[in-house]
Amino acid sequence: MALKITEECINCDVCEPECPNQAIYQGLEYYEINPDLCTECVGHFDTPQCVEVCPVECIPKDPEHEETVEQLMAKYLRLQGSGSKCA
Fold first, then answer.
1. Contact (Cβ atoms closer than 8 angstroms) between residue 54 and residue 13
2. How many CB atoms lie within 10 A of CB 18?
3. Which of 26, 37, 41, 46 is 20 to 30 A from 77 via CA?
């Protein structure tokens, strides 16, 4: 699953620079996560870095974007440009 930021976000600015995929951006009212870029840090870290630094615990899994670890790894590889190389 991709993650999402809920309305409890206090716009503290700590999550955005932690995202290795640049999936977090400032929305109209609070930070948001682009599910097409979020891999829950699979391929980069053992745990989602935004969740680790969030002081108000407002970053749950997004039930509208369910993905397995394998799907998240495939997304990571695609984002890194590793999934499209020919042999």
1. no
2. 16
3. 26
Nearest CA to 5 out of 72, 70, 28 is that of 28
Domain definitions of the chain by residue range: 16-71
The bridge status of strand 31-33 relative to strand 24-26 is antiparallel
Architecture (CATH level 2) of domain 16-71 = 2-Layer Sandwich (3.30)
* 0.90 surpassed by pTM: no
Instruction: Give the chain's largest Cα–Cα span.
Output: 47
73: three-class secondary structure by DSSP: helix
| Residue recorded with tokens 């999402």 | 4
